[in-house]
Amino acid sequence: MERELQILKVNLKHFILPHLLLSIVLMGLSPLAIGIENLDAQRTARVLEMFTALSGIIILTPVCLPEQNSDIRELLEVKYLSYTRVILARILENLFFLMIIIGLYIIWLKLNNCSFPMFNYYLGTLAEAFFLGGMGFCAYVVFGQIAVGYLLPLMYYIMASCGGRRLLGSLYPFSMIYGSYREKFYLAVLGLVMFVVGVGYIHFYRILRYRKRADKA
Amino acid sequence: MHEIIREISGLNEDELKAALKSYSADPEAAAKQQRLSAAAGLSFERFMELMKQADKLLGGGSMYRKSYIKYIARVPASFNEALQAYNEIIYKDRLSGAYARLFCDYLGIVLAILPVFLAVTRALRDKRGGANQVIFSKKAGSASIILSRYLSTVLMIMLPVLAIAGYLSVQFLYYGANEGIDVDVFAFFKYSLFWLLPAVMISSSVGIFLTELTQTAIAIVAMGIWWFVSMSVADLGGGYGWNLIPRHNTIGNYQVFIDNFKILVLNRIGYSLLAILLAAAAVLVYDLKRRGRLAIYGKRASNIKGKP
After folding, report:
1. Looking at the 3D structure of chain A, how many domains does it have?
2. Residue B241 class from Cβ within 10 Å (0-12 exposed, 13-18 middle, 19+ buried)?
3. In 3D, which of B60, B56, B46, B35 has the Cα closest to residue B7?
4. Nearest CA among B43, B69, B44, B45 for reference residue B55
């Protein structure tokens, strides 16, 4: 447990901090681009789904960013503590901060006299952010390129915002605008699946690589 | 907000509540049913003032802002106006021009952000593959390395755009030949090169410059923020201004296009020049790194230079 805590501390200090600060700055500057005062439920949903949920991409996609450098990746893989556990600890920590940031933003909206079901909208926004972040994480792990990790969820977002409701169906990310939470459930489940796929890929790909090396030796 | 609506509609609180209750999926029918119309004696200036107040109440940037308000009002066109719009599409835009603007409107959204991914991926590959030092030591000049990458990125993005433009041109040519309309065969190509190419250039150059400078994917975030703000403040109907993504989300509207043509030309030329400047800056940064004057992974490149 002590080791995991150390991982969380290092992750916060060296890797996730810039992404957290970026998210906080973007949220803080949001009134410059979108109105966030005295909104009704529909307008609040628009702000949360089309803006706030993007923080999922910023915070959850770069979980494996330190390993972009192959030297660090190889060093981590030979450590006694499983690399998969390191990744899991980082995901949970990033998710924890994502929950806090979205929660704080929702409280800010409430203080700005916006009227909306707070708890439902919190979970709905979190589900979308989790899905977008999961897609980014999974894409990054599988393709090994951080740019691809950002590309896929952003393309999904653009597709949805350019009238993709019919095309995306049950996976439409802006459903709260239309008063529906059903899609959020699917997004949360799919987000979880993508995280499992990403972590599984890391775990099994590493084992396969070692077996190949052992066979060669 | 209640006071604002009351002054605009001239209805009291009970009447407004009844109107809100009967508001259906068809707002026009509901408005007719409830006889919702502007209050007698309400001037346009006062209406705009009230809308400004409403926008302020919502924290700004709402649908009641001055640049957006025209989209939540509808005025039925008279026969003469409709005929004029038709004639403009057929004779001035030669059909394909009107659709080419809509084509650029939608494609412009994607092309303002997509190239940055390609540029960042390309630039980060050297770092990931540990190839920086090998390439640094090659004979090729910094300008030829960076500009060849930059131009290939722009070209590879524009090729499919031009291919789609070609496909659409053939479709319009065929349709025009059948209907007896003199179609502008090159409209899609002209609009693509004039409207979309600057967006591709700027997105690619931001990607290549920031990635060479920082060796991180920060360009995606920078371009993402720029893209989001541009989309948020865009005027959908031809008020192009200096927006990175000039929108023209309608078929036709020729007169608005002509009225704003000058600013659109300045906009596109301005972004093209900025893109060229950023590409040149990327060459400079790359050259400085090769000479060991900029840090790489926290070390000065001169450290690497000293190694055998």
Report:
1. 1
2. middle
3. B46
4. B69
* Domain around A97: 2-216
pLDDT at A2: 78
Q: Give per-residue pLDDT as tens, A74-106.
A: 777 777 778 888 889 999 999 999 999 999 999
Which of A35, A43, A151 shows the shortest C-beta gap to B60? A35
Domain coordinates of chain B in residue numbers? 2-72, 94-305
Helix (H/G/I), strand (E/B), else coil: B58: coil
Alpha carbon B166 to chain centroid, angstroms: 22
CA distance A1 to chain B (A): 31
Structure tokens at A1: 């447990």
> Within a 10 A sphere around the Cβ of A188, how many other Cβ atoms?
18
Task: Return the number of CB contacts < 8 Å for A and B.
Answer: 75
- B58/A35 CB distance under 8 A: yes
Tell me the mean pLDDT in the region B34-59: 82
Judged by phi (left if over 0) then psi (alpha if -120 to 50, else beta), residue A163 lies in: left
Residue pLDDT, tens place only, B165-198: 999 999 999 999 998 899 999 999 999 999 999 9
Residue A30: list chain B partners with CB under 8 A: none
The secondary structure of residue B296, as a DSSP letter, is E
Give the distance, in angstroms, between the CA of residue A160 and the centroid of all CA atoms in the same chain. Answer: 17
Token pair in block for residue B173: 């040519």
Q: Do A147 and B224 touch (CB under 8 A)?
A: no
Residues in chain A with CB shorter than 8 Å from the CB of B61 are: 31-35
* AA letter at B220: I
The minimal CB distance from A158 to the residues B110, B220, B232 is found for B110
